[in-house]
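Internal tracking record. Fields below are filled automatically when a chain is submitted to the structure queue. Please do not edit lines marked as system-generated. If the sequence contains nonstandard residues, flag them in the REMARKS field before resubmitting.
Queue: standard
Priority: normal
Entity type: single polypeptide chain
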Amino acid sequence: MAEFQITATTRTEFGKGASRRLRRAGEVPAVLYGHGTDPQHIALPGKETFLMLRHANVLMEITVEGQKERIMALPKQVQRDPITSFVDHIDLLIVKKGEKVSVEVPLTVVGEAERNSLVNIDLTSLLVLAPATNIPAEIEVSIEGLVIGDQILAGDVKLPEGVVYEHDPEAMVLNVAPQPVAEPAPSVADESTAVEGEQDSEDSE
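SYSTEM-GENERATED OUTPUT FOLLOWS
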């Protein structure tokens, strides 16, 4: 998993107006919570935060100005502007080494199935329980050698060491189906015959 260090400042103003001012200044409002601590309202540097969130399940090591202890956290909820995709707000879950957390991990399909087949993908991620400091960036699903009629369920996916399923094991991940056959386009001769038939019908009237 990707790990990043970042410095945050404590927020002293709250509400929509204060959040807008922060975003205009290039910062992102966020809240740290978990492990029985009181929520901490902080501000993160916008550009660094945007780049970090390009990685799935990124582990953030946060230094809050004025505090000695570094805080490890995972983004649990990210709110974005629907037009610009700029990060509006982040909820950060405090984690500790040795504990496991419930996370969605992206699935990556590798390999090739039977020729002239179509792989229908139903799930693009799996809900798993993974070590907070060692969450897999992705989980590979191999379709090498699969033939038409084969399918892969969530319980068939091989997980990395230390990771366990939280997903329904019977959930469909993907299946292999016949490739659709395109309807043949009408030939010029067929079109000509059809036109002649229409003309004969008109003449008989």
